Amino acid sequence: MYHDEGHIPIKMLGFQQSGDVSGVNMTIGLPIVRTSVDHGTAFYIAGEGIASARSMIDAIKVASSVSQ
Q1: Element (H, E) at 49
Q2: Quick one: which H or E segment has residue 23?
Q3: What backbone phi and psi angles, to 5 degrees, belong to 24?
Q4: What is the extent of the structural domain holding 41?
Q5: Residues 6 or more apart from 56 whose CB is under 8 A from it?
Q6: Given CA atoms 21, 4, 67, 65 in this order, what sign does their dihedral have?
Q7: Number of structural domains, the chain?
Q8: Given 3-state DSSP classes, what are the helix, strand and coil percentages for the chain, each rounded to the nearest 5?
Q9: What does each C-alpha distance from 56 to 28, 37, 41, 43, 63 come to in angstroms?
Q10: What pLDDT sits at residue 61?
Q11: Residue 27 forms beta bridges with which residues?
């Protein structure tokens, strides 16, 4: 399975159930903890004040939990 194919069901569930998609991308096998948000750049809403920080908060929480 390719990277983007795994994201499709997660994003579809988020759009259908809450409209507020949150996902965390985690790279395993590195000597450091690496997490990131699981969405694109959303340039179309940049500067509008409507972006959600939920994915970023979740990525920080996952990084914190696996680094302990």
Answers
A1: none
A2: none
A3: -125, 130
A4: 3-66
A5: 37
A6: positive
A7: 1
A8: 45, 10, 45
A9: 18, 6, 12, 16, 11
A10: 94
A11: 34
Cβ-contact 52, 20 below 8 angstroms: yes
Q: What is the pLDDT of residue 60?
A: 94
What is the reported pLDDT for 48?
92
pLDDT tens-digit map of 12-68: 766 555 556 677 888 889 999 999 887 777 788 889 998 888 888 989 999 999 997
pTM comes to 0.70
Other beta carbons within 10 angstroms of residue 60's beta carbon come to 14
- Which structure tokens are listed for 8? 């499709």
* 43: Cα separation from own chain's centroid: 16
The alpha-helical segments, DSSP class H, found in the chain are 3-17, 54-66
